[in-house]
Amino acid sequence: MKLLEIKDLTIHYVLDEDTVEAVNHIDLALEKGEALGLVGETGAGKTTTALGILGLIPDPPGKVISGEIIFEEENLLTKSAGQMRKIRGEKISMVFQDPMTALNPVLTVGDQISEVIKLHQNIPIAEATARACQMLEMVGIPAERINEYPHQFSGGMKQRVVIAIALACNPTLLIADEPTTALDVTIQAQVIDMIRDLRAKIGTSMLLITHDLGVVADICDKVAIIYAGEIVEYGNLTHIYNETAHPYTKGLFGSLPRLDIMVNRLNPIPGIMPDPTDLPQGCSFAPRCLNKCDRCDIEPPQNHEISPGHIVRCHLYAEDADDCREVK
Amino acid sequence: MHKYIFKRVLMMIPVLLGVSLIIFTLLYITPGDPARQILGPDASPEAVEALREELGLNDSFGVRYANFVIGALHGDLGISYTTRLPVATEIFSRFPTTFVYALLCTIVSMIIGIPLGIISATKQYSIFDNAATTFALLGVSMPTFWLGLMLILLFSVRLDWLPASGFYGPQYWILPAMTIGMNSSAYIMRMTRSSMLEVIRQDYIRTARAKGQTEYKIVVKHALKNALIPIITVVGINFGRSLGGAIVTEQIFAIPGLGKMMVEAISARNYPVVQGGVLFIAVATSVVNLLVDILYAYIDPRLSSQYQSGKKKKALQASEVTGGTAK
C-alpha cells in the first residue's frame, strides 16, 4: 500500500521580480515501512519538497502551483490549517538539518519533547513527562538531563533530542532533512545507526533527504535523484547503484572519491546548476550533460520506465530518440 | 548568581563616585552665587559673605567635595538652601510620586507597545503593520512637551474631561501617562517588532510548527520569550529614565516629583538638592539596570550559566565534555 504519493507537485517562490521554480512536476511514491532517499545538490528543491509535504512552505513567498500530495489516501494540499496541525508531529514529523538552531534555546529539552506529546495525545502532564524521559533514554541520553537546556548539550546530542521530538508520537512518516550534514563525521555514523535502529523498532516509513549517496545505500530501499526541482531518476538501490541510467546520476557517482582506484583529481560534473529563476527551455541538465543532443535544448524530456520501477527522465531513453543515442 | 549580584553592587561604588565628582565639579564651575540667590538682590555684601561662610561656600574645592562625600556616606546629603529641610527628606517625600508616575508610564507603554509590536511582526506588511509602524513613527517623532500641551488643550481646555495639572488621584494620572506612554510605547513597539521578526524566522520556530503547535502558542511560548531581551532592555531604560523624574512632563503637568524638584533647585542654585538628586537618580538607574540584568538570566538560561561562579562553570563544562549530568 502506498503511504505517500506525490503527483505532479510544483512549488514556486514568487518574489517581486523573479519566480524561483524550486520544485517542478515532481512525482514520488513511498510504500508503507519503506525508506526513500531523496538525493540532490544544494538548491535542488529537496527541502522545499519536504516542507511542502508538511504544509510548511513559508507563504509568502512560497506557493504550491499544482499537484497532489496523497498521504494515507487523503490529499494534504486540500486540508485546512487546523487539520494539518493534527497531522504534523503526530503522523508526519521532521528532523531538521541543523540541530544547533532547531531547538528553542530558552525551553528545556524535556519541555520541547513533551510539548509534542501533549499536543497530540490526551494524557496527563506527568505521563507526558515520563514519556519524554523514555524518548531521551531511547536516543541514548540519560533521562536525568531532561531539565537541561539545549546549550548544555553537544551538537550530536542536540540532534538526538531533535530525533526524540520527531519520534515522540510514533509517526507513520519521518522526514529527515540532511540529519547528519551539520555533524562531524564520527557523530554522523552514530546518528545514522541510531536512525536505522529506531526505524526498525518503530516501523516508521522514512523520507531521507541527503546529498550523501553512501548514507542512502546504507539505510534506504528506494532512491530518487532530484536535479533543479525535477526527479531525474527513481528506482530501488539496484536500479540506481548498479544500473545507473541518467547522465546526471552517472556524473554523481563519477565524482565520488573512491578508495580502490588511485586518482590525482576528483572528477566533478562540469558547470553549475541552472538558475532556478531562469531554467533552460528543454532539459534542465542539458547545459552540463555529456550525452546532450539537439532535442535536449528544445524539448523537456519525459519519464521513461526502463525496467519495472526504474524511471528515468531523459531523452536517451525515449523510443524515438535513436539520434540521441548515436551521438553518444 | 548571588556572587554575580554582589559583584555588580560593588561595581556601583566607582560609578557613584564618578557621578558625584562630575556633578559636584559642574556645579562648582557654574556661575551664580547661592547666597545671593537666597538673600535676594537687596542684601548687603556683608550679609552675603556671612552666609557664604556659614554654608561652607568659601572652602576649597577639595574640602567641599570631601565634606559632601563623607556626608553622603552617612546618609546626610545636606540641607536644602530654600526649604531648610534635609535633602534626603525632600527626595523621599517626592520619590513616591515619581515612582508611581514612572511605573504608570512603563505599564501603559508596555500594554500598548508589546502587543502592537507582536501583531505587527506576525502580520508583517499587512495594513495593521503599516498603521502600527506609522503610529510608532509619530510617537517617536512628537516631542513630549508639545504632545503634553496638545493633550491638555484637547482634554482639559476644550472637552473639560480631565484636570490639566497636579497629581492627586487617578484622573490626574491619565494625561501625563498618555504623554510619556505614547512616546515610550512607540520605542517598545519598534523594538518588539524587529526583535520578533528576527525570532520568527529562526529554525526552532519551524520546529514548533512541525510539531503541530498552534500559531498563538508559537508566538507566545516559543517566539516571545526569545524576543524578550531587547524589549526588556528598552523598558528598563525607559523606567530608569522616568525614575529620575520626567523633567519636561512633570513641569508641564505640575507633578510634584523629582524632576520638578531638580529643575527648581537648579534655577535657585540649590546645590545640595541638585547633588543629592543626581546621586539618587544614579543609584536608582544602577539598581534598575541590575534588576534588568538579573531578569535576563531568568529569561535566557544561556545567560544564567554565564552568571554562575567560576567553579560551577568549570564543573558544567567538564560534564559537557564527558556527556554526563551537570550537578
- First-residue to last-residue Cα separation of chain A: 39 Å
Sheet with most strands: strand arrangement of chain A: 6-7-8-3-9-10-12-11
Oligomeric organization of the protein chains: heterodimer
Total number of β-strand segments of chain B?
Answer: 0
Helix and strand composition category of chain A? alpha/beta
Number of strands of chain A: 12
Structural class label of chain B: mainly alpha
Mean pLDDT of chain A: 86
Determine the number of helices of chain A (DSSP H or I, runs of at least 4 residues). Answer: 12
Largest beta-sheet characterization of chain B: none
Mean pLDDT of chain B: 84
Secondary structure: helix percent of chain A: 25-40%
User: In whole angstroms, how far apart are the ends of chain B?
Assistant: 16 Å
**Beta-strand level of the residues of chain A, as a percent range?**
15-25%
* Morphology call of chain A: globular
| Percentage of β-strand residues of chain B | under 5%
Round the Cα radius of gyration of chain B to an integer and report it. 25 Å
Family (chain A): Belongs to the ABC transporter superfamily.
GO molecular function (chain A): ATP binding
Domain ABC transporter (chain A): 4-253
Organism (chain A): Fusibacter paucivorans
Would you write up a description of this structure?
The complex is a heterodimer of chains A (328) and B (327). Chain A is an alpha/beta fold. Chain A has 12 helices and 12 strands. In chain A, the strands form 2 sheets. In chain A, strands 6-7-8-3-9-10-12-11 form an 8-stranded mixed sheet, sandwiched between helices. In chain A, strands 2-1-4-5 form a 4-stranded antiparallel sheet, with helices on one face. In chain A, helix 4 crosses helix 5. The mean pLDDT of chain A is 86. Chain B is mainly alpha-helical. Chain B is built from 15 helices and no strands. The longest helix of chain B has 36 residues, at 87-122. The radius of gyration of chain B is 25 Å and the shape is flat. Chain B starts with a helix and ends in a 5-residue tail after the last helix. The chains are: A alpha/beta (328), B mainly alpha (327). At the A-B interface, helix 2, helix 4 and helix 6 of A face helix 9, helix 10 and helix 14 of B.
